[in-house]
Specification:
One of its GO terms (cellular component) is cytosol. By secondary structure, this protein is mainly alpha-helical.
Length: about 775
């Protein structure tokens, strides 16, 4: 290799550099052998006439320095470096020396660096070539970390100050960026007396004499503002904030509100520069929220946030979409102020923006619905009225594009919606759409994503009628569909059902439809079913599902006896062996299956809880309807018999369920019960709701009691006689009797009820 390399072409040189690095990384030889055999070849080729080759060998050397012992580095690299860094050497040689010194700063103690490396650093910082000064300036950050705070203050900072005033713009830019990166190493005095004046001068010149630094300044502005926050006066704080606002709209409009003639004649290069500046402002937006304090966001930064979210350039909006989650987290309870911008970005015409936003969509929506001060289960979604149309529009736009990965990602993230919006809204706006995607889309990952999200929606659906309808459609349109492709997707969906639902749920609705596919005319369907059979068998419990186990064994026998396709038959035989080795779980807990059984029991309890909640809502609606009907009838009866009511009033007890008077406590209890029922869709998997047992509901003369107990906590809703009894008052629909006389009527009627059968019969007739 050594003989060939000096006459080799560029490609061989590049390959050799990579190969030498691979030998080191894989430790093919000892480090002693490597330094003896390979190191001198690397050093010889550092100054190759081709810049690409030279850089490749330099990258290899910098990686080798990390692994070499100090003595080898000192003799083989550091000592020759002194001569190669001299002004008499070539430009390429001095550039290589600068980069090597930055790497060596972390390998030696501070006193060695001070004695042997720092003199070379100072010399190269004063080099006649601006490329050398720029390169050395960028290495000062690594050197400062190697020599510590004290030497940085006395040696590095003065060099940086001088380089910041260099005649070359590239040197000034390198000095500025190094200064920002070393902010943490400077104390308050250095920041206020040295760094801050330099930064202010950069800000003042960037629009006039030194536009080259504008893009870099906009990129580092957030770090600068927060790094210098402690030394700012209120006036300086305001000045930097205004400077940020100016950069955020650079290239869009002028301060006077009209376009400048010069802006109309901007070159393409200037436009690209201004777009980069606004993009950097979008990148720094979370840092600027911290700078102004989230409490002042609406007053100080909302207008800029609005402009950046509506910027005409896609890279700016893309960056805002990426940082949207960080902004929402910082605003916390004030997150309601950016609802409109979320909807705007969801409806953005660019799929890149949508893809960037969707990455953290579940977390953003959770903050939107739960982070605000006025949020709650009752007001869920009221705070984002346009959310559902925006979500449906985003999905449709992704579906019609060729970017199926964005569509797949979107469908996966939409699985969070049961925690955000109500079950009915999901059913009518999203669930059927998922089924349509499974049936019509041609991209397999998209179909699988839609299938899993549909199963999640089914898992949280709170109406049994709707659940049955969806299950029926899955079986008829997928499991019994004409296309074999749909029947394959049915098997995919069944896998998600087994993952998300309890074993009993799968056995009840999907076990037999899956087994029916053993007779499928397409070999691929039967083959996929055979792969799925072990999972299907694992859902059975003995002795409850003994009849299903018999059906499974019967289907396997038929496959073994009747299968003609040799590939399917091979898989059937392999599956039979696997099924024979499987142990079926029993109804009682077993130690080996304890965790799985516990998880399955948890899922089953949550499914029962959904049924209980649905029943509770129905009974609540029936009670309210009955209350309304009885009130109407009683009011009509009293109106017709107004002439005789004064005679009968002493012996009449008005017992009307759900009246508004005298039942405030009962109604509050019922209301709280319904609220818990309505909010279940967002809490169905929460641990504190996961251990709720089904309790009997009793309705009798003594009252209506429904209890739901869970995880050591119990909620009791009790409607006693008083909850269904109307105490006559001026507000209860009977203005003829005051409330005090009403209580006397109750007492007198009780006495007569005990001793007077005639009054009782009259009361019954009324």
């Amino acid at each position: 290799i050594q003989e060939v390399l000096h006459v080799a072409g560029v490609e061989m040189q590049l390959t050799a550099a990579v190969s030498f690095l691979t030998v080191l990384q894989e430790e093919s030889v000892s480090i002693h052998t490597y330094s003896h055999s390979f190191l001198h070849i690397i050093l010889q080729n550092l100054e190759h006439r081709d810049a690409g080759v030279s850089n490749a060998w330099l990258e290899t050397l910098l990686a080798v320095i990390e692994a070499l012992p100090k003595e080898t580095i000192r003799h083989e690299i550091l000592n020759p470096l002194v001569s190669k860094a001299q002004l008499s050497q070539t430009l390429q040689s001095r550039l290589v020396s600068c980069k090597i010194m930055g790497k060596l700063a972390n390998k030696f103690e501070a006193h060695i660096i001070k004695r042997e490396i720092l003199p070379l650093v100072k010399s190269l910082c004063q080099d006649v070539e601006y490329e050398i000064r720029t390169c050395m300036c960028r290495q000062l950050e690594h050197i400062a970390q190697g020599i510590g705070t004290e030497l940085t203050k006395t040696v590095v900072l003065p060099e940086l100050v001088e380089l910041a005033r260099d005649e070359s713009s590239s040197v000034r830019l390198a000095a500025f960026e190094t200064l920002v990166n070393l902010l943490d190493m400077f104390d308050a005095d250095d920041r206020s007396q040295t760094v801050l004046p330099l930064v202010k001068s950069f800000c003042e010149k960037c629009f006039k004499a030194d536009e080259s630094i504008l893009v870099s300044l906009s990129f580092h502005l957030g770090k600068l503002c927060n790094g210098l926050y402690g030394i700012f006066t209120p006036e300086q704080h305001l000045r930097f904030l205004e400077f940020y606002k100016k950069l955020s709209t650079l290239g869009l409009q002028q301060e006077n509100g009209h376009n400048d003639n010069q802006l109309q004649l901007q070159t393409l290069e200037q436009e690209k520069k201004y777009i980069s500046v606004r993009k950097n402002c979008a990148y720094n937006f979370p840092a600027m929220i911290v700078f102004v304090d989230p409490k002042n966001f609406h007053l100080e930064l909302y207008s800029i946030f609005f402009c950046l979210c509506h910027d005409p350039e896609v890279p700016v909006r893309y960056t805002m979409a990426i940082s949207f989650y960080e902004v929402a987290k910082l605003l916390n309870s004030g997150v309601y102020t950016i609802h409109k911008e979320l909807v705007t970005l969801l409806q953005d015409e660019s799929l890149e923006v949508l893809d960037a936003l969707v990455g953290h969509l579940p977390e953003i929506l959770e903050l939107m619905t739960n982070g605000g001060e006025n949020s709650g289960s009752e007001s869920k979604l009221l705070s984002i009225p346009d959310l559902i149309p925006a979500l449906t529009t985003a999905e449709q736009r992704a579906a019609t594009s060729l970017k199926w990965r964005t569509h797949e990602k979107l469908l996966q993230k939409y699985a969070c919606l049961p925690h955000i919006i109500s079950s009915d809204q999901i059913y009518y706006r999203f669930l059927h759409r998922m089924l349509t995607i499974i049936l019509t889309n041609n991209v397999l990952p998209v179909q699988k994503a839609a299938a899993r999200t549909l199963c999640v929606y089914l898992r949280y659906n709170r109406k049994q009628e709707q659940r049955h309808e969806v299950i029926q459609k899955l079986i008829e349109q997928l499991g019994q569909g004409k296309s074999y492709w749909n029947r394959l997707r049915f098997l995919d969906t069944c896998e998600f059902i087994m993952e998300l639902f309890s074993k009993s749920f799968f056995c009840k609705y999907f076990f037999l439809p899956v087994l029916e596919l053993t007779h499928d005319p397409v070999a691929n369907v039967r083959m996929k079913l055979c792969y799925l059979l072990p999972k299907v068998k694992s859902t059975l419990k003995i002795p409850t599902d003994k009849h299903l186990l018999q059906q499974l064994e019967l289907c396997i026998r038929k496959l073994l006896c009747q299968e003609k396709d040799k590939d399917v038959l091979t898989i059937v035989k392999r599956t039979v062996l696997e099924l024979d080795r499987m142990e079926i779980s029993v109804d009682v807990f077993q130690k080996r299956f304890y965790e799985n059984d516990l998880l399955d029991q948890e899922k089953e309890r949550q499914e029962h809880l959904l049924l209980e909640m649905e029943q509770l809502e129905k009974e609540k609606q029936q009670n309210e309807g009955r209350s309304t009907n009885v009130n109407d009838k009683m009011f009509e009866k009293k109106r017709r018999d107004s002439k005789t009511s004064s005679v009968l009033a002493k012996s009449i007890i008005l017992s009307v369920p759900g009246s508004s008077s005298g039942t405030s406590a009962g109604k509050e209890d019922k209301k709280s019960k319904l609220v818990r029922s309505q909010s279940f869709s967002t809490q169905a998997l929460h641990p504190k709701y996961s251990n709720i047992d089904k309790c009997p509901n009793k309705s009798s003369a003594t009252g209506y009691t429904s209890s739901v107990s869970g995880m050591g906590k119990s909620c009791m809703v009790s409607f006693s006689d008083d909850s269904f009894r109307t105490h006559s008052s001026g507000n209860s629909g009977n203005p003829a009797f005051p409330s005090s006389s009403s209580r006397n009527l109750f007492n007198s009627s009780d006495q007569k009820n005990n001793g007077n059968k005639e009054s009782q019969s009259r009361k019954m007739s009324v």
